[in-house]
Amino acid sequence: MNADSALVSRNACRLEKENAAFVMTLAHQATNVTSLRMLDTGLAKDVSGVLRITGAGGGWEREVLYHIKDSSVEVFNRGQMRS
After folding, report:
1. Measured between alpha carbons, how far is 59 from 48 in angstroms, rounded to an integer?
2. Would the N or C end of the chain have less CB density within 10 A of its end CB?
3. CA atoms of 20 and 14, how far apart (whole Å)
4. DSSP helix/strand/coil, 76
5. Sign of torsion over alpha carbons 7, 10, 11, 17
């Protein structure tokens, strides 16, 4: 897809380009795509990042926050009161 060309072409070496093309192919064929990212606003002591799940063809999308502490992970909605 034309939207993917910027992601594939910005890589320097052939291996990086082929790896990016492979990941894009998988993403287009997947039923669901799950991604993790850090907070846009930087670090926070009670939130580690954002978990985003997108359904096939962008039909639906869910985004929740997560916090990693010791060996456990807590997942919660934005603005949700936690203990």
Report:
1. 27
2. C
3. 10
4. strand
5. positive
pLDDT averages per 10-residue partition of the chain, 83 residues: 57 77 80 84 84 81 89 87 67
Q: What is the pLDDT of residue 64?
A: 93
Go through the chain and tell me how many residues it has.
83
* Residue 71 phi, psi dihedral angles, 5° rounding: -115, 20
Q: Which residue in 37, 29, 39 sits closest to 4, CA to CA?
A: 29
Q: What string of H, E and C letters represents the secondary structure of 27-54?
A: HHHCCEEEEEECCCCCCCCCCCEEEEEE
Residues in a beta bridge with 37 = 50
Q: What is the pLDDT of residue 65?
A: 92
Q: Distance of CA 37 to CAs 13, 14, 33, 57, 72, Å?
A: 25, 26, 13, 21, 18
